[in-house]
Write a structure and sequence with these properties.
CATH architecture of the largest domain: 3-Layer(aba) Sandwich
Structural class: alpha/beta
Number of helices: 15
Shape: elongated
Bound molecules: guanosine-5'-triphosphate, magnesium ion
Helix content: 25-40%
CATH topology of the largest domain: Rossmann fold
Length: 615
């Protein structure tokens, strides 16, 4: 009786074992022999359910069809009809060393999407290349994608050696050609193995018709792969999914909830939320339908309360203050794989999703495109075609927190959504200096040193019947910004609101007096930063603050958004667009006149729940 019987399962049930299970992916071009090698591996390690091999062979005879080891996989899946593996089949088996889950990734181009999701969970990969056909488009494409997904342990199996009379030079040529390609994309293969899935050569050490090869068999290669450290042992990362409020009267506590991507957290740990840099300590762990413990770890959901009430929102990433910080940037250099029917182009707005956050994004500089259908790196163009992989810069409309793929593959993965469909995905290589780094660092430090008020923000909001907000009014010179600002201040004040119009001169001659006299160009950003810092203090006091700015550009707005949380900012455009490519929250036609305009802004603030309607 085969003791591994219960280990063979192609469904979703995983073996119930305490031992670490390593997941592997077999990838490579269509028909190069992935399923055959996996089938052979199962057969030759005695991992098949008793009688399965004979049964499949008998079936083939009955249907006068030559037996294929690949049928074993399909038979285990009860799907033999098409003769190709149609989805990422999962096969469980074990060696003397450990348990494995094998993902037999389909090679057909249509299945690439499945391959991305299938390979995403793998710790190591075996890339199969047909000795007779040589390196083909998916050999490269899959190799590139594996490296993109942060799978560092890659072994290459040169299969069907029987078809080339087991010739060493054929094998050597493929080894050197593919090594060159892997080097180009920064991957160092673990090893190459000449095999014949059909005859079993070098699948296990027992069979080898190649006297010139004395290296490892596939089975040895598997056992030589290192297990990746458990995600729970990595630094703590939890993208915030939601912030819930206790409903009992007078209780201002909030529960922060999300799924822990990596690491662990305990009561008493100091956490920092990125990109805001706000910090607090874990007060209690919470559980909705169970007794809460005092700690939680990846890959499980967690919720907790904090000692101090700080303002955090969905999309921020919780990190332990004693562990390495994530990166924060609006510009990121990525390796991207494009699946969209239409090419990815510049100027168009896409949705970039990472963790729990969605941000509008545009394609910036394209540094390199690899067209996987030939062996060359393409001419750099201004678009990324379907199935191309590109190294490029993405410009996000807001800063995000992430980890570079080299350090932390899980929190570097993103997808691009266009028209509700996933049209691309990849990993972030690094942050690109977005000229906001200085501002950001100052804000971190300010938040870190911030003396929290004893009165929670929520209580001020209740008292003043409003949500503290900065209203930035912009437009061309003489568009009527200041009259509108004054009219709005008066209107809101007369309503009983806690409101103030901060004239730019009030900042310029006081807070900015040290830099006012030097050349204005050099200090444009610094003026904005200081104005925003002043605004931040007034917002903290619960105020609705109105400011005006001529021709506000995206960079200026990004400075303000770095200093003040973006959901506390409303932008109003008066008159013609300044041509600065910003989307505004509210548009006012100057011909309406300031009173009418102010009434429309008020209406919009009411609709957004910034000022609570009088009842
Ligand atoms: P897809 O799942 O469709 O991408 O294909 P695959 O890579 O899983 O290939 P599969 O294992 O189905 O093998 C494709 C064909 O190659 C089958 O007809 C196999 O019998 C044949 N084949 C696989 N390995 C060998 C080998 O070592 N020698 C010879 N001669 N044929 C092989
Ligand atoms: Mg297959």
């Amino acid at each position: 009786m085969n003791k591994n019987l219960d280990r063979i399962n192609t469904g979703t049930r995983e073996p119930d074992t305490d031992n670490r299970t390593m997941s592997l992916v077999f990838a490579g071009h269509v028909d190069h022999g992935k399923s055959t090698i996996v089938g052979r591996l199962l057969a030759d390690t005695g991992s098949l359910p008793e009688g399965k091999l004979e049964q499949v062979k008998r079936n083939c005879e009955l249907n006068s069809r030559p037996f294929e080891y690949a049928f074993l996989i399909d038979a285990l899946k009860d799907e033999q009809s098409q003769g190709i593996t149609i989805d990422s089949a999962r096969v469980f088996f074990r060696t003397g060393k450990r348990h494995y889950i094998i993902i037999d990734a389909p090679g057909h181009i249509e299945f690439l999407k499945n391959m991305i999701t299938g390979a995403a969970r793998a710790e190591a990969a075996l890339l199969v290349i047909d000795a007779e056909e040589g390196v083909r488009e998916n050999s490269r494409r899959h190799g590139y994608m594996l490296s993109m997904l942060g799978i560092r342990q890659i072994a290459v199996l040169v299969n069907k050696m029987d078809l080339v009379d087991y010739k060493e030079d054929v094998y050597r040529n493929i080894v050197s050609e593919y090594t060159r390609f892997l080097n180009e994309i920064g991957v160092e293969p673990r090893c190459f193995v000449p095999v014949s899935g059909m005859n079993g050569d070098n699948v296990t050490p027992e069979i080898n018709a190649m006297s010139w090869y004395s290296g490892k068999s596939v089975l040895d290669v598997l056992d030589d792969f290192r297990s990746e450290p458990d995600t729970a042992e990595r630094p703590f990362r939890m993208p915030v999914q939601d912030v819930y409020k206790f409903t009992r009267f007078g209780d201002s506590r909030r529960i922060v909830a999300g799924t822990i991507e990596s690491g662990s957290i305990s009561v008493g740990d100091e956490v920092i939320f990125y990109p805001s840099g706000k910090k607090s300590r874990i007060k209690t762990m919470e559980a909705f339908n169970a007794e809460p413990g005092t700690s939680a770890a990846a890959p499980y959901p967690a919720s907790f309360t904090l000692e101090e009430q700080i303002y955090i929102t969905r999309g921020q990433v919780a990190v332990k203050s004693i562990e390495p910080a994530p990166r924060v940037s609006t510009n990121v250099r990525v390796s991207l794989f494009w699946l969209g029917r239409k090419p990815m182009i510049k100027k168009k707005e896409y949705i970039f999703k990472i963790g729990t956050v969605k941000v509008p994004a545009r394609l910036g500089n394209i540094e390199r495109i690899i067209d996987a259908s030939d062996l060359e790196v393409d001419e750099v163009s201004d678009r990324i075609e379907r199935h191309d992989v590109a190294e490029c810069v993405l410009e996000l409309s807001r800063a995000i927190a992430f980890d570079p793929a080299d350090e932390h593959p899980l929190t570097s993965r993103f997808v691009i959504v266009d028209d509700y469909e996933i049209t691309g995905g990849g990993i972030i290589r690094e942050d690109v200096n977005d000229s906001l780094s200085d501002v950001r660092e100052r804000v971190f430090l300010r938040n870190y040193r911030w003396e929290k008020s004893g009165i929670p923000n929520g209580r001020r909001a209740e008292r003043y019947n409003q949500r503290a907000t900065l209203i930035v009014i912009t437009g061309k010179k003489d568009a009527g910004k200041k009259p509108l600002a004054r009219a709005l201040e008066r209107l809101l004040f007369d309503d009983g609101r806690f409101v103030y119009f901060l004239g730019i001169g009030n900042v310029l001659y006081g807070v900015d007096s040290d830099i006012r006299d030097s050349k204005a160009e050099d200090h444009a950003g610094e003026h904005i930063r200081r104005m925003a810092e002043v605004a931040n203090i007034m917002l903290e006091a619960g105020m609705i603050l109105i400011v005006t700015a001529i021709d506000l550009g995206l960079h200026d707005l990004n400075i303000i958004r770095t200093v003040i949380s973006p959901d506390h900012i409303e932008t109003v455009l008066v008159g013609d667009d300044t041509g600065r490519n910003i989307s505004y929250d509210i548009y006012i036609d100057p011909s309406e006149g300031p009173e009418q305009g102010a009434a429309r802004v008020r209406e919009s603030l009411q609709e957004k729940g910034i000022i609570f309607r009088a009842w």
